[in-house]
Design goal:
Layout (H helix, E strand, L loop, with lengths): L2 H18 L9 H17 L9 H20 L6 H23 L2 H28 L3 H4 L5 E2 L2 E3 L4 E4 L5 E3 L6 H16 L8 H18 L2 H17 L4 H29 L6 H19 L6 H15 L12 H9 L1 H18 L3 H15 L8 H11 L1 H6 L13
Antiparallel strand pairs: 1-2, 2-3, 3-4
Helix pairs in contact: 1-2, 1-5, 2-4, 3-4, 3-14, 4-16, 5-7, 5-8, 7-8, 7-9, 7-15, 9-10, 9-15, 11-12, 11-13, 13-14, 14-15, 14-16
Length: 412
């Protein structure tokens, strides 16, 4: 297969990873998502000239993670069901395919495709968002795939009008907080890559679109990590300090006068002290920490988690009692235990070291990613799991220009 065809296949793989990590249009059949991704990977792997290079610590990590998940399955054996088996094996399959992709596709290729995909989604979302803001009647006049609660699904964009009356930008994802997570990851790759993917003008355009898209999500987490990201980027490029100061003043004025008073306080005060969303997120942390205390090494497993979660939340008087998590860290601690999460965070730390050499910026980036992970269950998504294995496999990429042996030359 020629270079362009292989590069196109790499793009399709990255696109599917983004879609299967939370796009409403393809649904939530994770078994199908993983099978499609594995088939795409096999086609990719079998092409001439593509080699898989796996660092020892990457193999050891995936081995330990597999053992811990298998122990989890054995804990649920008395409550065996196909759905529980799918949860456990599905999570394991996503980890394995993430490891294989990180071992076969050069990080430069992966990150460039990821940035371009999120840029396209951000640009499309801004066009839809601005159009609906200017002319709300378009929402009901355009053909929609389906209407779920407050969502109008236009395939390439989902319109979501929240209960407190705000229009928030979801792009194609399940909620605005999810969208900002993908934007943040794209910005991390754009700001801290060892290679400049685009010309200065094009990079500035990407930063502008990503920033506008983040602001339209009205995500508290998104605003915090965006502010920290620009601070870290300024530390890396000190010549940008005057521009960053001006942008910071404008951001502070907007945050203080508009966003803080009209958005964030409304979110938290809609129903007393906490909104239903805020109440649920805070409650999740306490409920899941209690689960960790009961089984710190191996976690409680899927059966106990889903059985006890809704009941406990109801007993606490929480309005939103659907099973599932809202915080990657406490969610995985409760499910699989402390060693499991420790391995994933070790990989995340290695990823930060892989993309940035300065220690002080590494610390800030790691904090940014931790804050991001506490906002959604991103660590259950392949688009976020794969960066962990790029981190664990980083020495391979530092020793070689790319794992394609020169077979792919992505255009700028």
């Amino acid at each position: 297969m020629n270079k362009n065809a292989v590069n196109s296949l790499a793009f399709i793989i990255v696109l599917w990873m983004v879609l299967s990590s939370g796009a409403e249009i393809i649904g939530y059949n994770e078994t199908m998502h993983v099978i499609v991704l594995f088939v795409l990977y096999l086609i990719f792997f079998m092409q001439k000239g593509i080699n898989t290079k796996i660092q020892t610590r990457s193999l050891v990590s995936i081995g330990l993670l597999s053992i811990l998940i298998l122990i989890n399955i054995s804990m649920d054996i008395d409550h065996f069901s196909m759905s529980l088996l799918n949860f456990d094996l599905g999570f394991l399959a996503k980890l394995w395919i993430s490891m294989l992709i990180a071992s076969s596709m050069d990080y430069k290729i992966y990150s460039r495709h990821f940035i371009n995909i999120i840029f396209a989604l951000s640009l499309i979302s801004i066009i839809f968002y601005a159009s609906f803001l200017i002319n709300p009647g378009l929402i009901t006049s355009l053909p929609s795939l389906n209407i779920i609660k407050s969502n109008y699904n236009f395939i390439v964009y989902i319109h979501n009008k929240e209960q407190w009356g705000m229009d928030r930008n979801c792009s194609i994802f399940w909620e605005p907080g999810a969208f900002q997570g993908f934007i943040t990851l794209a910005l991390v790759m754009l700001f801290f890559s060892k290679d400049q993917f685009f010309s200065n003008k094009k990079q500035l355009l990407y930063i502008l679109i990503f920033t506008i898209a983040t602001l339209t999500t009205f995500s508290t987490t998104g605003y915090i990590v965006l502010f920290l990201l620009f601070g870290a980027y300024t530390m890396k490029n000190i010549k940008l300090l005057p521009l960053t100061i001006i942008a910071g003043i404008i951001f502070y004025m907007a945050f203080d006068r508009v966003i803080l008073s009209n958005v964030i306080f409304q979110k938290f005060n809609q129903e007393g002290i906490w909104s239903t969303s805020g109440e649920r997120r805070i409650s999740d942390v306490f409920v899941e920490i209690d689960m960790v205390k009961s089984s710190p090494v191996f976690g409680v497993g899927y059966h106990d988690y889903f059985t006890k979660k809704g009941i406990t939340l109801s007993m606490k008087g929480v309005v939103e009692t659907w099973e599932g998590g809202t915080n990657s860290l406490t969610y995985l601690l409760a499910l699989f235990g402390i060693p499991f999460l420790t391995i994933l965070l070790w990989g995340l730390g290695n990823f930060v070291q892989f993309i940035e050499s300065r220690k002080e910026i590494q610390v800030i980036l790691f904090i940014i990613l931790l804050i991001l992970l506490m906002g959604e269950v991103f660590l259950a998504k392949v688009a976020f799991q794969v960066i962990i294995f790029y981190g664990l496999n980083r020495r391979v990429f530092l020793r070689t220009n790319n794992s394609f042996n020169g077979h792919i030359s992505a255009s700028k």
